[in-house]
Design brief:
mainly beta, Jelly Rolls, 7-stranded mixed sheet, 6-stranded antiparallel sheet, 13 strands, about 35% strand
Length: about 190
């Protein structure tokens, strides 16, 4: 009798291992990048206007508002990829800051304007910080770029930046921009 109990027990264990392995098979969770939006000067704008040309040191700007609902339904996970050029002898270690201002349709973070406009110094305190691009070389008029993940829960948002360097952004509407790429999640 004990031999048959052992066989039953071993059979049960084998059955459980096989069942658990099949029942809890691993699914791949992938990120599928969506079509990027370009927030840039009106001369090159594909999607949303954001004046970046000739923004002075110690100044900032916020884009027009983008609606990511309805026909523009987008993910809550994004990748922000800014690029810009400074004019003058760059100072290694200085930064340009990047922010998101969301809106529920009535109230905008920081109570900033919903259209392409200047960003006041203290308004940054109530925006969602996205990241910085650190000046990494001294050559003037050279493109610097960065990338960082951003989570945007609300249906309306604006992209903002603050030039915390001692130099102005280059006066050129074709060398600056911020690409915002929705990063959709897909389970396979």
């Amino acid at each position: 009798m004990t031999m048959s109990i052992k066989k039953v027990f071993v059979s049960f264990l084998v059955f459980m291992l096989v069942t658990v392995t099949v029942a809890y098979a691993v699914n791949k969770i992938l990120v599928v990048p969506g079509a990027p939006l370009l927030f840039a000067d009106a001369a090159q704008v594909e999607d949303v206007t954001l004046t970046m040309s000739a923004i002075a040191a110690g100044a900032g700007q916020c884009s027009n508002q983008y609606t990511k609902t309805g026909a523009n339904l987008k993910s809550q996970n994004w990748e922000m990829r800014p690029h810009f050029q400074l004019t003058g002898t760059n100072v290694v270690g200085e930064v340009v800051e990047f922010y998101i201002a969301t809106s529920d349709g009535s109230n905008v973070q920081g109570n900033i304007t919903g259209s392409n406009g200047a960003l006041a110094t203290d308004k940054r305190k109530n925006l969602t910080f996205a990241g910085v691009v650190v000046v990494d070389q001294t050559t003037t008029n050279t493109t610097m770029a960065g990338a960082f993940p951003v989570r945007i829960e609300e249906g309306l948002f604006q992209v903002c930046f603050w030039n915390a360097t001692t130099l102005p952004l280059r006066t050129d509407t074709s060398v600056h921009g911020i690409r915002m790429k929705p990063m959709d999640i897909e389970v396979q």
